[in-house]
Amino acid sequence: MFPRFVVGGIIPALRLSQVVAAASKHVTTSADRNMALVYNSTHRLYSVQTNPENLTVNYDYVKKATSDGNILIVDVREPDEIKEHGKIPNSINIPLGDITSVLSTMPDKDFEQTYKRPKPSEDTQIIFYCMIGKRSGMAQQNALNIGYKNVKNYLGSWTDWATKSQ
């Protein structure tokens, strides 16, 4: 159905669903839609340049963030892991599998009732962490995909925190 170069990912800034939605606007027939897909897939689209240093944080940054009520720190580990190992002060737990639905579809009132914090806006600074930084990187990508703009990954995550906060 789609040209191989569209499905293969030649368009790095847009997911396929976004390409289809963009190509489908203002076209009336399937032939027009297919032509729009081909046109859009032959023109490289770019996202805003992001400095990788703005996407990750270290222990000192997170330590300061624990006392800043404007920054949301999210632990994406499973609840059993938190019970076993502990958590960063003032963080909330949203397991990785729930991140997208909680941040995108959970009503503000339910979020505040569940997490005792206001639901973050798309500009709220959010720091994700897990045990070593891998799952938190996935959570960060999920948040970026649904429109959050100021999300960071604590690369050292709980392992780094536990070592340095003793």
From TrEMBL:
Residues 67-166 form the Rhodanese domain. Keywords: Signal. It holds the Pfam family Rhodanese. Transmembrane segments: none annotated. Residues 1-21 form the signal peptide. It comes from the Eukaryota. This is Rhodanese domain-containing protein.
